[in-house]
Amino acid sequence: MTGDPKAAARAIDAIRRGWPIRIAGDGGAICLLAIETADEERLAGFDAAGMAGVLLSAERAATLKLANQRDAATPAVPVLIGRAPWLDLPGAVALADPSADLSNPFKGPYQSAPLAAGEAANAALALARLAGVLPAFFLLPEGPAEVSLAAADVAAIEDAGQLRIVTRARLPIEGAEQAEIVAFRGPADAAEHVALLIGAPTGQPPIVRLHSECLTGDAFGSLKCDCGPQLDEGLRAIAASGWGILLYLRQEGRGIGLVNKLRAYALQDQGFDTLEANRRLGFAEDARDFGVAARMLALLNQDRIRLLTNNPEKVAGLARAGIEVIERLPLALPANPHNQAYLGIKRDKAGHFL
Ligand SMILES: Nc1nc2c(ncn2[C@@H]2O[C@H](COP(=O)(O)OP(=O)(O)OP(=O)(O)O)[C@@H](O)[C@H]2O)c(=O)[nH]1
Ligand SMILES: [Zn+2]
């Protein structure tokens, strides 16, 4: 990988602070200011002439019914809305943030502008996801920038091959006193994934559970999802088998971050389902990369496993990354009135075995 993950880390920091960045890639370079962290002063500093367009993800553009302005042959590309006099900061926030979609009649008609710098635009949207902000930017072909980077730098920060084991320690837990915790870190990615090794290797493929972080379910006992009970049951099943591994992946909200997941919850309060909510925010329905989990297993010298999951994408994602899942074990728990619809959507729309 030729990219510099540190440049991407600086760009993520800049996005969180509301500083402009410049990204170069195939098709050219663009300068960007994240809409979520912009204010009037930052916008004036970025775009004194009022020329910036608004960059949106393909998912957000589809939500805003901008599909007719997109190239039908390549629908999954970002959309650039050309600058119009009424497209001020509040107007841009309304494009970026779906929370008021139902009460905000769209002003339009939006004029989509040609976007040659497709690679840089995709890199910008990936950075927004990594920064945990809404994937929408003011965009100028040339402008001020605190951080300059290349699209390849973003690929480098997401490169699971960079992950290393940094430390390990004994960690007796309830139900499994013989357990060890192993921490992993990449060169620039702040996410610290951990593995819990339970029991003693038997020479047989371990039972493995990939658990994506869910603060609300794991720590607060949220009834909206099944994460907390799945975490408990996963640990119990591994301990009962005598030997296995729980990977705790810092991929909160299926990879969109805590704040964006809570925004998705607010949209669910308006009646959208869990997958629609992600798309309205401008993200994929599931933004996780299970290559991270595959890399962790490889570092633990496990390339044949028995996987506890109902999610066919976890099996496929591990297989693509070279881990052989010799058996899938179901992990279904009783529904409650608050997560019944959520589980139904996972089964009917996301194809989970439930
Ligand atoms: N964006 C979003 N994320 C959610 C929502 N509900 C739960 N999550 C997240 O979804 C992830 C659930 O992960 P898992 O339990 O590993 O996975 P799963 O895809 O359901 O698959 P299995 O449990 O293995 O069958 C966690 O990161 C949660 O934070 C939601 O409504 N929106
Ligand atoms: Zn959850």
From TrEMBL:
EC class name: hydrolase
Cofactor binding notes: Binds 1 zinc ion per subunit.
Sequence positions that bind Zn(2+): 214, 225, 227
Lineage: Bacteria, Pseudomonadati, Pseudomonadota, Alphaproteobacteria, Sphingomonadales
Pfam families cross-referenced by the UniProt entry: GTP_cyclohydro2
EC identifiers of the protein: 3.5.4.25
One term of GO molecular function: GTP cyclohydrolase II activity
Cofactor(s) needed: Zn(2+)
This protein's UniProt keywords: GTP-binding, Hydrolase, Metal-binding, Nucleotide-binding, Riboflavin biosynthesis, Zinc
Pathway: Cofactor biosynthesis; riboflavin biosynthesis; 5-amino-6-(D-ribitylamino)uracil from GTP: step 1/4
The family this protein is said to belong to: Belongs to the GTP cyclohydrolase II family.
Annotated binding of GTP, by residue: 209-213, 230, 252-254, 274, 309, 314
Function description: Catalyzes the conversion of GTP to 2,5-diamino-6-ribosylamino-4(3H)-pyrimidinone 5'-phosphate (DARP), formate and pyrophosphate.
Gene designation per UniProt: ribA
Domain GTP cyclohydrolase II: from-to ranges: 168-330
Record keyword Magnesium present: no
Reaction equations catalysed: GTP + 4 H2O = 2,5-diamino-6-hydroxy-4-(5-phosphoribosylamino)-pyrimidine + formate + 2 phosphate + 3 H(+)
Positions of the catalytic residues: 286 (proton acceptor), 288 (nucleophile)
Leader sequence residues: none
Protein name as it appears in the record: GTP cyclohydrolase-2
